[in-house]
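Hey,
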Amino acid sequence: MEFAENELTSMICDNNEDVTDAIFDKYSYLVDVIVYKYEGAIKALKLDMEEVKQEAYYAFNDAIINYRDELASSFPTFISLCIRRKIWNRFRITTANKNLTHLNETSINNIFVKTSDLEKLCDMKYNPEKIVI
């Protein structure tokens, strides 16, 4: 079914499944556009791109449910705002002090030790206990 812009926004409150599908078909590209805009930040924070995209779709669905025709903003603007807020909230949670430790983690597989340093570590004359005694 093809609906005009003003018909869609006026029929949102009716919980009509055809309207919801039409809205999804018409505006789902906004999720991809907005998530792509924040792709650099998502990678820098080591977040899963698909997980962020799913949260954006969740915000998109909430926008469809919570939109009211009386609001001053247009429907695409409201959708964009909801998606951006959800992504920003995810960034805020990820960058909270208690969650910052995983951003600085290094896998033990990525650490390379030179053999000379390894020999020094194994040599008993560099053993701190022996030095103190």
